[in-house]
Amino acid sequence: MSGKPLCEIFAIICALLVMLAAPGLYSPSSEAAAPDELQVVTDSGAILGRETPSGARAWFGIPYAAPPIGARRWLPPGPVEPWTVARPAVEGGPVCTQPENDQSGQAVIVGSEDCLTANVFAPPHPSRTPLPVMVWVHGGGDLTVSGSEYDGSRIATEGVIVVTFNYRLGPLGWFYHPAITNSGATPATGQLGLLDIIAALQWVQRNVAQFGGDPDNVTIFGQSSGAHDIYALVLARKARGLFQKAIAQSGGFWNMTLEQAVNYRDDPIPGTPLSAREVVNALLIAAGRAGDAKEARAIQHDEPPEALATWLRGLPATALMAPYQDDPHVGYDIPTVVYDSIFLPAMDHHAQFALGKYNAVPMIIGGTRDEQKGGQASNNALVRKVNGRTEIRNRSEYEALNRFYSDWWNFMAVDDLLPRLRMPVYAYRFDWDDAPTAPSNLHVLYGASHALDLPFLFPGWETKYFSALFTKDNQPGREKLSATMISYWVEFARHGDPGTGTEHNLPNWSSWQSRHEKMVFGNRSVSMHAGSVYGEQLLKDIWTSPYLTTEEKCAAFLDDTIYPAYPLAELKAHGCRRY
After folding, report:
1. How many angstroms separate the CA atoms of 367 and 413, rounded?
2. Which member of 50, 96, 270, 476 lies 3.0 to 4.6 Å from 115 by CB, making a disulfide possible if both were Cys?
3. For 6-21, what is each residue's pLDDT tens digit?
4. What SS3 string covers 206-242?
């Protein structure tokens, strides 16, 4: 989670396209798609797609909801205005408003608020029977990235329909100020990004049959904050019936209480540094409407909510994003999924699971062994440059930090949930770390880091992020592992059980309920293994670690326990000063 907004994407040379036919469903062909196979009529109008280099058919930039711009900022997604002439669907729509580093390393705001579009990937030719549907929810800390960055054609050629899409991000997708949420006849949720995801799933229900998909066989899958959002959909009554299976890759429950999302930092129940009231304080000061926080609070207290909401909706997106850019801990501080009593009940996920109040569907859940190392590898306090090489300053400290963050992440995302989920759940751990050891030891620096599993599912990232990890020497193993993972993922989408893969030639992936084991994806093979992370013991071990400073211990404990409540007493007892 640390650094997750801008540091969770890794590049890889993608696997060769392997066509594994599904008997009775889809037979691959090298022939080009006919023109009439590229035109689809949606409930809003006809669209014309194109072929991808792999031969898959694809349609890009399809509006699935009305643009949430102007007075519609922070309103639930509305219906699309239909069109009468077939429109080209050959390019992805604009990314949703988000921060990005320019060539000089300075943070800038890019994208558009008019961004609610979807992309669909289908096999080269229509199937005789409806195909399973896989809907990808992208990661990026709920603050960055877009659905168009994920090429679903590799998975689609295995005989499934793949849908990717954009949803509102950052404060445009999640904002809990009472002037916004209490402006209607009844209180509204501030979780607009999640409402966008539901709108995309509803669009799939209405339209995916036109692309050859089965609306009654939908699997949602996502990574990092995308998997975090998938867990929210599993808990949300509003998402009931929109999917039949779910895959959560490196997700977790870093959900907040409504008080954390709304309150000032010095309230009896403190808000986060980026709570709605703290952000509006910063916006009022930046606009010159208040000279300091005291004056800004007075405006929030005295100004009619309707007037404050109108002012907030009129701010340029760049101004609205500024307080978030200035926060060094934005990945933790920004409220996204919240127990707000509207979208989610005002109880944490443990209580919901115990009461059976969730969408009980078969799931694949897992994470990478070294989730944290990607962020550590670029932290100058932990690494240094020596003669063109990157070296770890203190190996014991480096590995201890990785374990206290990565093991907690895997506990929160996997091991804490396994005994609580009632439907079959298939657990995994991604261990691939076959990176070069010279000139820098990338094998140790990155290990099996956060997002390193993504390029094994989606092609085309090899030139953008961390391409040094992938070489000709490790290419054969990568291609084999890529084909293996896709085979399991697609088989699960078809039948709710990854089993032995689509060709029934892989090790059997048993449910956790049957063997209490996980599938481990390694450098040379995949196999089932026992082993769990125990969160309570891990937290105790932080305070006794001989390798970390007091400041590092406090930061690790805080970041591991911040949700859904700050452990203020214990932090204070150990001399921690941040909160």
Report:
1. 7
2. 96
3. 333 333 222 222 222 2
4. HHHHHHCEEEEEEEEEEECHHHHHHHHHHHCHHHCCC
Integer Cα distance of 168 and 192 in angstroms: 7
The mean predicted confidence, pLDDT, of the chain is 91
Q: Which residues pair with 109 in a beta bridge?
A: 99
In tens, the pLDDT along 498-541 reads: 999 999 999 999 999 999 999 999 999 999 999 999 999 999 99
Task: Give tens-digit pLDDT for 308-340.
Answer: 999 999 999 999 999 998 888 888 889 999 999
- Is residue 453 within 8 A of residue 368, CB to CB? The reply is yes
Is the residue at 65 inside a domain?
A: yes
Q: pLDDT for 141-196, tens place per residue?
A: 999 999 999 999 999 999 999 999 999 999 999 999 999 999 877 889 999 999 99
Strands 213-223, 131-137: pairing kind: parallel
Length of the chain in terms of residues written: 579
CB 491 within 8 A of CB 498: yes
Q: Please state, in angstroms and rounded to a whole number, the distance separating the CA atoms of residues 215 and 205.
A: 5
Nearest CA to 230 out of 153, 135, 160, 161 is that of 135
| 111 within a domain of the structure (yes/no) | yes
Task: Write the CA distances from 208 to 47, 118, 119, 124, 215, integer angstroms.
Answer: 13, 11, 11, 16, 6
The pLDDT value recorded for residue 31 is: 55
Count up the domains in the chain and report the number.
1
Q: What is the pLDDT of residue 34?
A: 59
Residues 516 and 510: their CA atoms lie apart, in Å, by 9
- Percentages helix, strand, coil for the chain (3-state, rounded to 5) are 35, 20, 50
Domain containing residue 248: 48-252
DSSP annotation of 173 reads H
272, with CB counted inside 10 A (0-12, 13-18, 19+), is: buried
354 membership: H or E segment, kind and range: helix 349-355
Specify the residue for token string 């001989």. Answer: 546
The helix (run of H) or strand (run of E) holding residue 383 is strand 383-386
Query: Is residue 197 in a domain?
Result: yes
Alpha-carbon gap, residue 19 to 490, rounded angstroms: 12
CA neighbor of 405 nearest in space, from 568, 569, 541: 541
Rounded to whole angstroms, the Cα distance separating 529 from 519 reads 6
Q: Are strands 98-101 and 107-110 parallel, antiparallel or unpaired?
A: antiparallel
DSSP string, 493-549: HHHS--BTTTTT-S--B--HHHHS-EEEE-SS-EEEE-----HHHHHHHHHH-SSS-
Q: What is the CATH number of the domain that holds 222?
A: 3.40.50.1820
Find residue 101's DSSP bridge partners.
107
Q: Name the token pair of 1.
A: 């989670």
Q: Does residue 361 lie within any of the structural domains? A: no
Q: At what angle do helices 276-286 and 293-302 cross, to 10 degrees?
A: 110
Instruction: Give residues with Cβ within 8 angstroms of 454, minimum separation 6.
Output: 9, 10, 223, 461
Rounded Cα distance, 56 and 160, in Å:
11
- Neighbouring CB atoms inside 10 A of 305's CB total 15
Q: What is the CA radius of gyration of the chain?
A: 23
pTM above 0.85, yes or no: yes
DSSP-derived 3-state class of residue 487 = helix
